[in-house]
């Protein structure tokens, strides 16, 4: 009996180690820049949905304007680079800080109210930021170029300080490390008091309060942290694409996409947003590429249907059933169906 | 000096005086009962003490401190824990998780919180269900979890809002024993209960309210004999319960 | 002075149909405590229906109400009954099922993109019998189509209030909006009440669609514009508050019309956001909202 469980554990660990090895060695045998670019975007989405999840998942509220913080990150580091030659590596912290402050300021009045206020307010705020940027050519000393967006000035060759590389490989490793870090942060928070308080306050605010939790305070901090980390992703996006404009990086569609990937994957779980990105991004890209040529809009009809079906049949996201499947597989190969209930 | 003093507390909702100038004082170590017909304002009074609402008028003094209008989490930190009449467990979390949220008030260390929670769960005979999700519990267990979770905050005073409603007679007896055990550990108990047999047998002192106003207070024997109380409860009489 | 008064008139006229659109959203929230993200898409459906009625028959745009009102009421009724009810049932213990926001967003995507597939992305406009006509009061201009819009808003709001106050169904809707559990204890069929509330919300979106047809472009994503506006308005006015929605609509309309005297329309849009944020800080629960609420 014990040998079965032992075996199960070994297989489980081996698979996980293999996965990590696999992910970290991809650039050794994948050389096509296009493929790497696709993977980089996949990880970037996983990163952004994971940071969204810090407030949207654990705090149990629904932020629908997170593109604003991606944009704050991208714009801050880029204008600092253009105007003062500040390295984006430093600029990204400035962007993060600004995003955190803005997020906290928005969170303070809205996180005390019913969740709908927060969802609608964040969405309206995101749109407000987009309209502001689209209508502003010059923000103080900085040229932000209104609706046309800005380019990150090209520095010839590989330049670590300028966060610019000729090959895709450095970008791959940077976003992979960033993703690992936010996953670790999420995991860590879920195990300490603030994580318990966030989850409790998200589920039953009154009960949590009567158990000593200042619910709004914890939500506001989660919002700040989430916005901070989201903005770091914004800088990465700017350095990767080297060109961005408000409609894209500050758009409502982008905000919604981040939220829905996390929700379909499984909000409030650690793996959920990553799973969501890994499943949904390829599907939505492929349907967009192949279907919009046939009938524009069809891929979004399908996306809408997927949203509805997941919410009706798996409201906690796809990560639950996938985990079950994985456990079933483990039990199957190690013959532990009887011992380990899943 | 009394542990908790409620001085002329009123709570108005618009034109409705849900609690109207109620005063009482609860000594340390007592089990203090609060009874009254449906809608009398009992839960509202609890909510005022626990900080869910600020009272419209009056003052609440705990251990000589004026805690009127304090926030619920500060009141809990001070040592007053409460349960809800309609239980509010964290449904998607385990029983252990539920109590750990309470235990975290006295420690930020996770394993310490876990140890304390397990002890509390043991004393409420919930230890074997520690890893069950709260939404899968029976009503009786949910009620018990509600009390266990409040006890995990290690309070000096416990407010119990109808923690026996909906339980079977043998479960009521078990809960009564648990309440006495809590009291024996030096924790003052302030409880609302409709089950007369239960509240009469366990309370040291009882206050009766009706339409937000206090009718009387006294020992269970005095309350049981009182004309006004019998009138208030006509149709829901003590004898029948 | 004249310019200002004319701007105020325009603001009131615009604000009235904003307010009407927001009214549909706020009624649904008031009863079910969920936000219908497909509200703008329902408005778009109403607009397309009215558009085709006018195009094909040449009737007065308001004649389309005969079709649009029952159609959208049934649509909303069915939407709540089929898609939202299972979520509310599954999440009985949750205060505010955010899943509903996601499901209705799914409906939004489907409706907007079906419209795109069927009608194409172009902006359409139809010449109706009241398009471009004006009514003069002294020196002030009232575009007829918008004046009718104002009257429609007043009549619809009046009818809705009357329905909620004096009919049996309306009273059960109000009871259910106060307390889900208590209402069902009193023998009110909670979900039927929800269906009706949702139907009314959708119907109002359809009415706004008809009002807009004489002077507004129709295109598949027209609803998004109104979605964002309605969200701002209901938060401004206080979620679930009927006077809040109407007042919020007029406020937004007035801001747009008066500030557009001095700046481009994109900047007036920005002013709306600034006012919105300001209200959020001064009165987070909105002008007519409950103060203490989770
Ligand atoms: N938040 C509120 N807003 C408005 N009225 C309220 C509110 N809470 C309670 N009330 C009203 O105050 C009165 C007292 O209610 P309360 O819940 O305190 O009664 P209770 O004595 O606990 O009754 P029960 O025995 O049924 O629990 C009732 O009429 C109730 O409807
Ligand atoms: Mg009560």
What does this structure look like?
The complex is a heterotrimer of chains A (342), B (241) and C (294). Chain A is mostly helical and 342 residues long. Helix content of chain A is 74%, strand content 2%. Chain A contains 14 helices and four strands. In chain A, the strands form two sheets. Chain A has a two-stranded antiparallel ribbon with strand order 1-2. A two-stranded antiparallel ribbon of chain A has the order 3-4. The longest helix of chain A is centred in the N-terminal third of the chain and has 28 residues, at 2-29. The two termini of chain A are 17 Å apart. The model of chain A has no long low-confidence stretch (mean pLDDT 90). With 241 residues, chain B is of the alpha/beta class. Chain B has a six-stranded mixed beta sheet, sandwiched between helices. Chain B has a four-stranded antiparallel beta sheet with strand order 2-1-4-5, covered by helices on one side. In chain B, strand 9 (205-210) and strand 10 (213-218) form a beta hairpin. In chain B, helix 3 packs parallel to helix 5. The relative contact order of chain B is 0.17. Residues 237-241 of chain B have low confidence and may be disordered. Chain C contains eleven helices and two strands; from the N terminus they run H-H-H-H-E-E-H-H-H-H-H-H-H. Chain C has helices at residues 2-32, 39-57, 65-90, 99-119, 144-166, 168-178, 180-185, 190-212, 222-237, 242-259, 265-282, and strands at 134-137, 140-143. The longest helix of chain C has 31 residues, at 2-32. The radius of gyration of chain C is 19 Å and the shape is globular. Chain C starts with a helix and ends in a 12-residue tail after the last helix. Chains in contact: A-B, A-C. The interface between A and C is large, with 43 and 51 residues.
- Strand arrangement, major sheet of chain B: 6-7-8-3-9-10
Number of continuous helical runs of chain B = 9
The largest β sheet of chain A comes out as: 2 strands, antiparallel
| Low-pLDDT residue intervals, each spanning 5 or more residues of chain B | 237-241
Ligands, ions, cofactors: adenosine-5'-triphosphate, magnesium ion
pLDDT < 50 runs, ≥5 residues of chain A: none
* Biggest chain-to-chain interface with counts: A-C, 43 and 51 residues
Cα distance spanning the termini of chain B: 35 Å
Helix content of chain A: over 70%
Strand composition percent of chain B: 15-25%
Structural class of chain A: mainly alpha
Strand order of the largest sheet of chain A: 1-2
